[in-house]
Design a protein that fits this description.
Layout lengths: L2 H9 L3 H11 L1 H18 L1 H8 L12 E4 L2 E4 L1 E3 L8 E3 L20 H37 L1 H16 L2 H14 L2 E3 L2 E3 L3 H24 L1
Antiparallel strand pairs: 1-2, 3-4, 5-6
Helix pairs in contact: 3-5, 4-5, 5-6, 5-8, 7-8
Length: 218
Amino acid sequence: MSIKESSEAIFSESPGKIALRTLRRDKRSIISLSILGFIIAISLLAPLYAHFVAHTDPFASSLDATTKIGGKVVPVLQPSTTGLGLGVTPIGPTWNPSSYFLGADGQGRDVMARLLFGGRNTLLIGTLAGIICIVLALLIGVVAGYRKGWVDAILSRLLDVIWAFPVYLLAISLSVVLLTSGLTVGFVHLGPGLLLSLFSLLVLSIFLTLHGQFAHRS
């Protein structure tokens, strides 16, 4: 094949094929992608791990739970041996996938199961925030570009307010208010709890994503 024919074959390829070929040649990227895929997979399978492997409820306290280590039954929360000997010390990692692989927390709950559920919630929040931001950004861009004039000016000023607002101050304020007193909108009241905490993280993720997208485009 001549140089001309080779160059024509390269330029006739789609950007996707070129990117895929480049990715296959980069071993570090392949390894990183494999690790990321593994983390996503085990996070999505968190309920199955908790039910069929660890046989535990990661959200229920187990102050009197026990486990086997080296054939011996030991309490998950062991009496403290430091200081005055008061309180309890959670068991450390057992490296046994079926029994407190990464140990227990102060309430006797399986840390590995809770870690996987936390990863699943993080994926859910990030995915929903990304989808919502894409839809909002598309609508705002289409409306501003089509209508122009005063509509474009108003939308631009609203986005300027988003850019100027201290992001971390919003995060602290939102977390404190929602986790202590809940959320009241009209006749609807949501009490403080886990679901409201996840909702606040979702709102914050959307805000941060919109902030980054529009600031980058400006």
